Known about the structure:
Elements: E1 16-21, H1 25-45, E2 49-55, E3 71-72, H2 76-81, E4 87-90, H3 96-107, E5 111-114, H4 117-133, E6 138-139, H5 150-157, E7 163-169, H6 172-182, H7 187-196, H8 205-208, H9 211-225, E8 235-236, H10 246-252, E9 255-266, E10 269-280, E11 292-299, E12 303-310, H11 314-330, E13 347-348, E14 354-360, H12 366-373, E15 378-381, E16 385-392, H13 393-402, E17 409-412
Parallel strand pairs: 1-2, 1-4, 2-3, 4-5, 5-6, 8-10, 10-13, 10-17
Antiparallel strand pairs: 7-9, 7-11, 9-10, 11-12, 14-16, 14-17, 15-16
Helix pairs in contact: 1-11, 3-4, 4-9, 6-7
Bound molecules: NADP nicotinamide-adenine-dinucleotide phosphate.
Amino acid sequence: MMTRTGPSMVPSKSPLRLGLLGLGTVGQAVLALIEQHGAIYAARTGRSLEVTAVSARNRHRARRVDISVYRWYDDASALAMAEDVDVVIEVAGGVDAAYAVAEAALSAGKHWVTANKALLAEHGQALIALAHENHAMIGFEAAVCGAIPVVKTLREGLAANLVDDVQGIFNGTCNYIFTQMANGMGFEAALADATAKGYAEADPALDIGGVDAAHKTALMAALVSDGTVDFTAVSVEGITGVPDGISAQLAQHGYVLKLLGQCRLLAHGWAVWVYPAAVPQSHPLARIDGVVNAVAYHGNAADFGMLQGLGAGGAATASAVLSDVLDIAAGRGVIAGGLPNGSETTVVPVSERVGAYWVAVSDGGASLTAVLQNISAGLTNLGTALLVSEVREADLRDALNAQQYAGAWIRVEGV
Length: 415
Ligand SMILES: NC(=O)c1ccc[n+]([C@@H]2O[C@H](COP(=O)([O-])OP(=O)(O)OC[C@H]3O[C@@H](n4cnc5c(N)ncnc54)[C@H](OP(=O)(O)O)[C@@H]3O)[C@@H](O)[C@H]2O)c1
């Protein structure tokens, strides 16, 4: 294969100086990419990247990259305020410690590039205000679906649209587990398989509990609703409560199980919801298998579109981190990452969802049919399940509770 030499422009501006917090999977990949492609990056942006300082928990841990060439800080906040750091890259994770460092960096007028969706979903407001005060940029492309350029797509590519719907598969671990369950595995075996292959964290609670997908959904909701999103108002259901065997039952009726995140404009506010849903096998999201992520959107002018790609992995995530760094180097960076610093978006509770539901039945559904007919605009008997459409979720729950229904039911999307 021919060696890529890239453009040959010599940078004329002073280097963009980077302080890197976190030297794990993503941090080391960031350093490796800069080492490999630094010359091309410099030519593309007109400015070279210079890593001036690094920090992590343990200076003496073995790393895949040589960090002895960078100045080490035990204290990450000191790194964030160092004179010779223009951009702080935070790929350490966690919330409280990262928040303190982000505050220090933004207060000192440094730009902040992060892969930390938990931090932004929970403390985004304070950090956005600080960024505006200090004319600082926040880059968070890596925080939303890894390598997929979803932030740029929503914020820039679709800037002329009113985007009223974003829906997708935002967590690769859950998608892998559901893919294996569709192949006949039980939940516990699929989780163990994901862990053995490195697709699930040692503590997978944030992934399988739906919280990781919810963090990303909240960030996308802020972008498309032009408002701030209170993370505590987001409805989050993970995949742990899904009974083994339900995939096979859904497959008989032409559906696939997916953990979906969605931001959708409704009559009285925004749906910002994460839950497992049945999707028709013919739907584009049904074909997204394994650890792949996908983001489907609708804009009033652009109409429908879908992006897919790797949502995790060292190099893939570093690709997104560096896309923000290179924007800053090229002078394309956006104050506070374009996240709104203003009115709060109204988030509608999932109990107000009006849509379709698949309800398993053991007796042909005779007893439930009459009850559900009163509250739904349409009812189809599938034999071993009822497909109930155009029903308000709170009404469905009430009806099922009144019947002391103990079977499985699941929301249906994409019909
Ligand atoms: N891995 C992915 O595929 C992926 C994808 C998207 C987003 N992200 C996000 O990227 C971030 C980093 O993920 P990762 O997978 O690279 O994590 P990781 O492999 O666990 O590495 C974390 C790094 O941060 C350091 N660190 C942790 N807590 C620290 C603290 N309080 N003070 C100083 N240093 C600290 C660790 O230091 P030591 O090495 O000394 O222990 C380590 O170098 C997280 O926010 C994660 O959600 C990761």
